[in-house]
C-alpha cells in the first residue's frame, strides 16, 4: 500500500488497465452497456473504495492523461477537413441543427432545475453537460458552479450518448448521416463522437464540427440561461 501511495504512475496505470478491461469486454460481448469508459470508471471507483487509496493520490498520476484531451480534440478536425465540401453545401441546416441542440440542452436543464428545486450553484453546474470537459469546466467555474459535479455530469452525458446514440437514431428512423452526426456531437461531445465515427466518416466529421460550434454557443447560452435562476 505504501508503494501505491508513493507511486506517481498509479493513476495512469490504473486508468489504462481499467479502460483496457472495458475495451476487451466491449469487443467480446458487443453490447452498448459495456462501454469502455463506463467500465473504467466503475473499476477505478471499486479499486479506490476497496483498497482505501485516497483519490488525491490516484489523481496525482491520472491527471497526466487529461493533458491529452486538448490535442485529441484538435485531431477531430481531420475528418471535418475531409468532408469540407459537404459542410459548405449544407451549412444552413447544420447551423440550425447545432443551435437547436444547444437550446434543447440548456432548456432541459432549466426545466429540470425548476422541477427538482436546484440551487443556483447546482443549476449552473449542469448547464455545460453536453460540451467537452475543457470548455465545460471553465463555464462552470466562471458561473460559480461545482466544477467536480460538472465534470462528472459531462462524462456521464458522453457515456450515455455513446451507448444510446445508435439505438435512438434507429428508434426515430434518423437515417441521414449529417443529421446523425450533428445530433450525437451536440448532445454528447467527444465521447459520443467516437460512436459517430464508428457509424461512418460523414457522421464523425459532422459530430466533430458540432463539438466546437456547440461549445462556443454554450459559452454564450449558459451565461444567458444562468440568469433565469
Automatic annotation (TrEMBL):
Q: Which UniProt keywords apply?
A: Membrane, Transmembrane, Transmembrane helix
Judging by the UniProt lineage, the source's domain of life is Bacteria
- Coarse class of the protein's main subcellular location: membrane
Q: Which InterPro entries match?
A: CidB/LrgB
- Mode of membrane association: Multi-pass membrane protein
Q: Where in the cell is it found?
A: Membrane
Query: Is Transmembrane helix one of the keywords UniProt gives this record?
Result: yes
Keyword Magnesium included in the entry's annotation: no
Query: A Pfam family this protein belongs to?
Result: LrgB
TM segments?
6-25, 37-58, 64-81, 93-118, 143-165, 205-228
Q: Single GO cellular component annotation?
A: membrane
**Protein name (Swiss-Prot/TrEMBL):** LrgB family protein
Task: State the organism named in the record.
Answer: Dorea formicigenerans
Q: What is the phylogenetic placement of the source species in the record? A: Bacteria, Bacillati, Bacillota, Clostridia, Lachnospirales
